[in-house]
Amino acid sequence: MKEEKAVVVFSGGQDSTTCLFWALKEFKEVYTVTFDYGQRHAAEIECAKEIADELGVSFHVLDMTLINQLSANALTRDDIEVKDGEEGELPSTFVAGRNHLFLSFAAVYAREMGARHLITGVCETDFSGYPDCRDVFIKSLNVTLNLAMDEQFVIHTPLMWLNKEQTWELADELDALTFVREKTLTCYHGVRGDGCGECPSCILRKNGLDAYLSKKGEQA
Fold this sequence. Notes:
Layout: E1 5-9, H1 14-26, E2 29-36, H2 43-55, E3 58-63, H3 66-70, H4 98-113, E4 117-119, H5 135-149, E5 154-156, H6 164-173, H7 177-183, H8 200-219
Parallel strand pairs: 1-2, 1-4, 2-3, 4-5
């Protein structure tokens, strides 16, 4: 893979930024593709661009605002409260078909760039119940994309079986822990770094970080 090109599906959050650092280590040339899907905070796209610029990688934004016309959810509608799912229901932040569409469009972009590797930060361990973060979905879509375009794409999911503590550990192994902690935007309320500390995303992120730093301290 060292001599090949890759496209990272990039949001500027903890997971995709960790994946970007992983890709920069594994591939000769790396591109990022970010999606404007009408998310609450334009700061997410700005953050992604700043990170890409700082790391010296290509940055491209695709207009996917049509998602907002199709799916009512807390990430695109200010009048919907951010909350976890209850009694088996999906969280209000679930955007139906998002990863399916993002990866499909990323594959078309990758083909134009001459890249056959796609990297995404989806994770089945801390996936909040999102069906399009599951390994079985990724494997199925990989086959579908290859059949649809007669290509040999490989979708990489470096975080698939990692919990948040292990994701922080991977960032540290990539010498990127401080960068990821300070410069990414994971918060549902648009606060960079450690975030608001109250939304489900920030709580998950903080719990993982606290667990990893505690473990690291014990080892030291």
